[in-house]
UniProtKB/TrEMBL annotation:
The chain crosses the membrane at residues 191-212. The gene is LOC117662670. Residues 231-254 are annotated as: Disordered. Keywords: Leucine-rich repeat, Membrane, Repeat, Signal, Transmembrane, Transmembrane helix. It comes from Pantherophis guttatus. This is Leucine-rich repeat-containing protein 3.
């Protein structure tokens, strides 16, 4: 083999090699990346594109940002359990291929999540247990949009809820029993609107009553003022009458 051929071979090897993220282990040949228990606060940006199984569990990750797994077209399993994840960007899973089959988000701090990040993952098995879920209309809509399997739906337990009597129960059990959080939310909205209108009408009526009473008081004061004015006596008109009589007498004589 010539020196030039060896040089091209080395360049090809270096170009095809992808480094392993710092703090992670990447055993060669099996497509598994181990980043468990590494005190990670963010998802590494340099995960090899040929990764098939990615372990990011048991870290300190709080948020999954947009495109965090972009380019991982071969990813089959994504393990994010036992972190501190509270929020997920709507574009968090953009760039993933169709190979993903398991997404483990169990044991995090999820109370409620937007359906948007998961719409493109309807075929993926979700692990959602051991999260402090808040059962309300948006969570019910999420379960409906994702068409969660029976076991996954049973994993969503209401840590808090719109009504206290639902706490500790599974969301799927409540929905199957006829509970509709969206109708309850609409009732709350209607009641709040009705209360607002009642208060508004009360304020308007109070102002009208005040305005009428104020005008009545002003009218009474004006009337009292008119009554207090002196009335002219009839004697003040006598000189004029006398002058008129004198003029008539004179005209008669003439």
């Amino acid at each position: 083999m010539s020196v030039w051929s060896v040089f091209l071979f080395l360049i090809h090897c270096l170009h095809g090699h992808q480094s392993c993220p710092r703090r992670c282990d990447c055993p060669p040949g099996n497509g598994v990346v181990w980043c468990s228990w590494r005190n990670l606060m963010v998802i590494p940006f340099d995960i090899p594109h040929d990764t098939r199984v990615l372990y990011l569990d048991s870290n300190w990750i709080v948020h999954i940002s947009s495109g965090a797994f972009h380019g991982l077209k071969l990813l089959h399993e994504l393990h994010l359990a036992d972190n501190l994840i509270e929020s997920i960007s709507p574009a968090a899973f953009h760039g993933l291929g169709n190979a993903l089959r398991l997404l483990d988000l169990s044991g995090n701090k999820l109370r409620n999540i937007d359906p948007a990040p998961f719409i493109m993952l309807t075929w993926v098995k979700l692990e959602l247990y051991n999260n402090p879920w808040h059962c309300d209309c948006s969570l019910q809509e999420l379960m409906k949009a994702l068409s969660l399997g029976a076991r996954t739906a049973e994993d969503i337990v209401c840590t808090t809820a719109t009504w206290k009597e639902y706490v500790g129960k599974t969301l799927s059990h409540l929905v199957s029993a006829g509970v509709n959080f969206c109708v309850t939310q609409q009732k709350h909205t209607d009641f709040a609107m009705l209360l607002t209108m009642f208060v508004w009408f009360g304020v308007v009526n109070t102002y009208i009553i005040y305005y009428i009473r104020r005008n009545q008081a002003e009218s009474r004061r004006h009337l009292e003022y008119l009554k207090s004015l002196p009335v002219p006596s009839s004697s003040s008109f006598q000189p004029e009458e006398k002058e008129v009589d004198e003029d008539n007498t004179l005209s008669t004589i003439l």
